[in-house]
Amino acid sequence: MTDGMMDGMTDRSWQHRESYTFDRHVIAEIRRAANTGIYRIRGFGAKRPLPTLDDLVFLGASMSRYPLEGYREACGTDVIIGAERAERPVRLKIPVTIAGMSFGSLSAQAKEALGRGASVAGTSTTTGDGGMTQEERGHSETLVYQYLPSRYGMNPDDLRKADAIEVVVGQGAKPGGGGMLMGQKITERVGEMRTLPVGIDQRSACRHPDWTGPDDLEIKIQELREITDWQIPIYIKVGAARPFYDTALAVKAGADCVVVDGMQGGTAATQDVFIEHVGIPTIAAIPEAVRALQELDVHRGSVKLIAAGGIRSGADVAKALALGADAVSIGTAALIAIGDNDPGLDDEYRALGSAAGAWEDYQDGTDPAGITTQNPELSARLDPVIGGRRLANYLQVLTLEAQTLARANGKSHVHNLEPEDLAALTVEAAAMAGVPLAGTSWIPGRDGPRN
Amino acid sequence: MSLALPDTFDLADTTVRELNRSLHLAEGGSCTVLNPRGAHSVAAGLTSPIDVTVDGSVGYYCAGMNQQATVHVNGNASTGLAENIMSGTVRVTGNATMSAGATGHGGLVVVEGNAGARCGISMKGVDIVVGGNVGHMSAFMAQAGNLVVLGNAGDDLGDSLYEARLFVRGTVASLGADAVEKEMGPEHLGIVADLLEKADMSDAANPSEFRRYGTARQLYNFHIDDIDAELATGATP
After folding, report:
1. Mutate: best of A31, A207, A227, A364, partner B, most B CBs <10 A
2. ipTM for the complex?
């Protein structure tokens, strides 16, 4: 044996090289699957790298664009939904709403905190798959009532108490899938609200029981308007699947507002394979939905667009609006604001086999932050008043940040932001968002320079 | 604000909106609706104990989400008859197409003729009596309540159902996942007798002629293996 061969054998770093294809997460999942025989069910949203709104930047003002004074000049943020058809349109002070999350998936304290925070900020909260609780109605100044395939707890009295109805066709975490709530969270109260046996693993319907396709949905929306005496707006929420066609069909069906939820949207419990592999990213969905609204001549008009899925910051809010959304919706970010994945609870997350910042087991009902649980001892840990203040503060920051960016681009209302204020940092983002690659006039997939 | 009901609404010269607005404001009384001509959402969202008779056939969602009212249709009904009914009674003398009584929480739905596919889908406590047959996927994911069928049931009856009780006098083309035939006990004969009487069909059938179907409860929870735990405790052979 030569010296050279000896050297090769003593350098053993290759023995520690992890496979890119079979990385430690992949190996852990194969082992977990082999042990249990059931797919991974978890909460949270997509975790793998995806194109995001971070791949866009605002251009700001310059020689040819005049900015507004960043700290003082007025920059409007209000949103009105349903003014054309509803007696009582939804009036929001800020362009950020709280997405649908059920009592059942969340504790009553968490729902109350969301209601309190949203009401202080002047925006809406949304029920979820499982009906409306008195607590959330009481603490939410503007409450959107979700109308879902399962119709769990669906009650015309609650429908009439709502400020808007959101017909849920799909959600970003799982376009084409129904709700899921594991038995640990089907307590007596949750089971009674949903007419389900306590402790079952609830797998909700994914198709509505009494309409099929957009022609039926148009008649369904007419019925909902009749039952609520044309008082309140009606939204249609879709997962980001085919946003151009879905949005166009939602307009045809008579919606006042289309909610398009990108694949980064979170969930209380869904198959991991669904969360990570179905739907398209939010950055790709918004421009397609906007194109449909523009073709039908309702954009920034009679039909509003709410974009959702992975919205985290005022920059995300402003970029979504610049791409053409009228408002955004947040779910995961709102839960983090009220205490989800709190680093102060790291020891407890680790005791559950996770860590602060990585916790995703919403389905287990063991949340040490007291948010995604029905365990009375855990949920009592969440102070809904403090949680509400945290959410209100966070919503205020999102709004201030969005205003800052709007003023820097010379806009006196956040709705005046437009694609022309943006540039893309990657070729992919340029193609998906339909804005030029930074430093060029190139939008992949489109002919010629932009006008 | 409560308004007295007119004796008749003629949908030949009144809109469904005007009809429903009046019905929503009424707290009692009765009325007849003429010339429905397949209109949708006729008498949807009623909230008080009024009697509404519809002379003719209706479109989708007739008597949708009904509370307390009695709605009688002399004709046929299209999709979603009495969907999500909470209480009261809805009756059609003819046939009902898809999703009759869908997701109903309470009250009684009577179809004298046949009901189409998905009759009683996701029912949550409503009682449904069908004089004729029901179509495929009826009582899909049915959670609570009773479905009584004097005729035959189509394919996949009671697929993935929960605690709803299904009674069929004739044949069942096939049962859906997790649906099984169950014994007809005295309690069940009593339920059928009571519902036949409420549906005014006591003379049409005898409770002893019905067979009962319900859940096998095999889909209530995921089956999860745990090989590692078995090895740790030495439980495997």
Report:
1. A227
2. 0.96
